[in-house]
Amino acid sequence: MCSGGFAKCLGITLIPLAILCILCNILLFFPGGVPASSNDNITEEVWYFGGILGSGVLMIFPALVFLGLKNNDCCGCCGNESCGKRFAMFTSIIFAGVGLVGALYSTIISAAAINRGPLCATDTASNATFFYPFQNGDYLSNHTLWDECQQPERIVPWHLTLFSLLLIMGLVQAALCGFQAINGLIGTICGDCCGCCGSDGAV
């Protein structure tokens, strides 16, 4: 497969992942699936926008660049037909780095949120105080602790599921961006194996 074709496949995969990450982050603003009574009752890590900025916006740009590499025909620079394609592949390495930073940011935020647990209240009173009842991920192996969170309802599985999805998708995105960095390096050194400007393009 051409280096440009491989990059296009990665771009096609990254687009839906970025959209899903944005949706997961948005859903986290609705603890337990319902609107929060106050912004202060939303888990702090949600406000870091790991899914929206890191795995979302910062991933869209690299994905679009990867999608366009196969059809890039910027040939003829410096009298060399293949150097335009090589430069495009080199540029993709930079964008892959941007995507990698975004994915790692989202992954770190998600891991911290999972370890800390959700912000919740331990009683059902309307004026109940919201705080973080879990310590160092102790609730992950002891599901009986989940009952401590009375408000919002179902907040623990909601929090854990969405941040786990963000964590997994962030790791996948980081791996894909890493693959493209390697692919871009190969394309920069060797050129696109399918040629730059058709069947008679230099490689």
Distance between the termini: 14 Å
Mean pLDDT across all amino acids: 88
Write down the Rg. 22 Å
What is the ordering of alpha helices and beta strands?
Answer: HHHHH
Number of helices: 5
Strand content: under 5%
Count of distinct strands: 0
The figure for the number of domains is 1
Structural class: mainly alpha
Largest sheet: none
Uncertain segments are 195-203
Per the principal axes of the C-alpha atoms, what is the gross shape?
Answer: elongated
Helix content: 55-70%
What does this molecule look like?
With 203 residues, the protein is an all-alpha fold. It has one domain (3-34, 42-72, 79-190). Helices cover 59% and strands 0% of the residues. The protein is built from 5 helices and no strands. The chain has helices spanning 3-27, 50-69, 83-116, 138-141, 155-190. Helix 1 runs antiparallel to helix 2 and helix 3 packs antiparallel against helix 5. It is elongated, with a radius of gyration of 22 Å. It starts with a helix and ends in a 13-residue tail after the last helix. Residues 195-203 have low confidence and may be disordered.
